[in-house]
Design brief:
Length: 174
């Protein structure tokens, strides 16, 4: 579901619209631009760049969108601060715990003007207090107009959602 919604895989049938755009009619470059400018990802394995600090990892998508380095860094620092990680901004991924890496990945996904947030087990490496702060951040983004698709096995996390779909064997079960 997440890879299809994120334009990384083609569906076997049906139509996929992201931000009003039909993915089927888009070139690879157009899909890449859509992903970079419209979609925030939270990957289960973090996908942080090891040679960049936490702040640089969070600011990178904004810089790729053409936002100046100073403004991108400020936005990145605000996102890290919202997740209790301002003090870890100068740290590299290998200096962070799994939970800290996960929160950096989440900050990177929500920074900027994304319209769609795709999250794969965003609280998987977090304790309950940090999981709650992550869900607050996702919920705040949704209240500001961001659509979020969160995949989880955690019933507590799912309780934050406005809508829950159970998928079994590739089909919506409930």
């Amino acid at each position: 579901l997440l890879t299809i919604a994120g334009s990384l895989e083609e569906p076997t049938s049906g139509q996929v619209l992201v931000a009003g755009q039909d993915l089927a009619g888009m070139s690879r470059n157009d899909k890449a631009r859509l992903r970079r400018q419209t979609i925030g990802y939270v990957f289960q394995d973090f996908n942080l760049l090891p040679g960049l600090t936490a702040a640089e990892n969070v600011a990178l998508p904004l810089e790729l969108d053409g936002i100046g380095a100073r403004r991108a860094r400020e936005a990145g620092l605000r996102a890290l601060d919202a997740l209790g990680l301002a003090h870890r901004a100068p740290s590299y991924p290998d200096q962070l715990s799994g939970g800290e890496r996960q929160r950096v990945a989440i900050a990177r996904a929500v920074v900027g003007d994304r319209q769609l947030l795709l999250a794969d087990e965003p609280s998987g490496a977090l304790d309950s207090a940090n999981a709650e702060s992550v869900m607050r951040m996702i919920r705040t983004a949704c209240k500001q107009g961001v659509a979020a698709v969160v995949v989880t096995h955690d019933a507590q996390l799912a309780s934050w959602a406005d809508r829950v779909a159970f998928i079994r064997d590739g089909r919506i079960a409930d």
